[in-house]
Amino acid sequence: MIAKSSQHLWTYRAIFLCFCLTIISFKLLPLTLDQLRFPSPDILLAVTLSWLLRQPSVVPMVSIVAVFLLSDFLFQRPPGLWTLLVLLVSEGLRHERAKMTEFPFLVEWGLFAVAVFALLLMNRIALFVLMIDTDKLGIVLAHGIVTVGIYPAVVALSKYGLGLRKLRPVDSGSA
Amino acid sequence: MARERSDQSLARPVRRLMVGVIILCLILLVLIWRIDNTRVERIRAAIVDTFVPNMQWAMAPVNSLGRMVDDFQSYARLYEQNDQLRRELQQMRAWREAAIQLEQENARLLDLNRVQLDPELTFITGIVLADSGSTFRRSVLLNVGERDGILDGWATMDGLGVVGRISGVGPRTSRVLLLTDSNSRVPVTVQPSGQQAILMGDNTFAPVLEFLETPEDISAGDRIVTSGDGGLFPSGLLIGQVAITPDRRMRARLSADVSRLNFLRVMRSHEGNQLSDPGSLIGPPWPPEPAPTAPQNVLETGELEQ
Description:
Chain A is an all-alpha fold. Chain A has helices at about 1-30, 45-55, 60-75, 80-100, 105-130, 135-150, 150-160, 170-175.
């Protein structure tokens, strides 16, 4: 029983990494040069945080650092900064999640929204402190809103497509 | 269960330590990037270089799928397309006549003038590998790099107009910062009136024209070409046409089709500008150094005494 569940865990960890690599590759494909009218959601962030909220052990710290550091380097962002912020927020969410017993979807979504906007805010402050050009506030906010908006779709995909169920309070004690 | 608990109690401080170490490393990385930008950017170029060419297998099916969808859509409106093509063909015939006449005239004139084209304006053609931009950054990756002699700062064009300039070269790939990126600043000339301006990208499709002396002299449709100031771009490359927005700002409608880049020409325009000194103050020249007379006198007197 234990062997089986740990096997599942490793399968999901592998799926997470593959999924993230696929998303990064698709973002790199030269298909989306004219995406200006509608800011694209940060699917990578949505997937990571949703899986983290649902099954924290599936998304270990090492995967987060690896995936986001790679995306930092490939997407021409300041290397390490976004990774650092995501890591901080994910640790915070992990901590918050461990304390909760009841966990309805709306609370989960709200947590995600708070996390996303905290990330964007901290990123902006960090860029300001490091004296790097910041982007227009409007685009950043729209980006955040779209990312929050896509969350239910990501959750539905991972629940019905990949069978990643939410951790129940009974399980969370042992996990 | 109890075993697990005890494991966890031991694992928790270790984990906390690991988080701390990773966070420290990341902060260091950001700071190093901020301080020693070029070295970290070189690392970034190396990472992009190893990761992106491996993606061609992924791109092939996606590209062919897109082409199939396009083909299918074109089947759906075959009839009207045919009609449209006929009309266009008629127009093209007229244009071809005009073009042939112009070509003959041009050849005659060139012959009269004995014009030599600038031998520096040769180019290397590359294929767009990936779009490493996002909502905030406008850049593409080319499949030519240091191996092919690409240097930082060279102008890049598609068939018609300037697209951007090389910014970041890896061994096998190079990054093109598009004119539409918010970091792009290019000195330009607006053609009939000959005014100098700066073309500033702002992440929209039409970069803004700024620092015009007399904006009244400029009307929509004027040609914008590079001015060659600053020595970064060769002068006279076509960029686009002036468009005036409803809020009376001047923008450039680019001739290059920035949303559908496929083949790009990198113009071998200069030897690569190196910043060797931090630049000096602009002002009146310094007075010449006073000649070292006093020590010489001492020496002479010393010699006399001897």
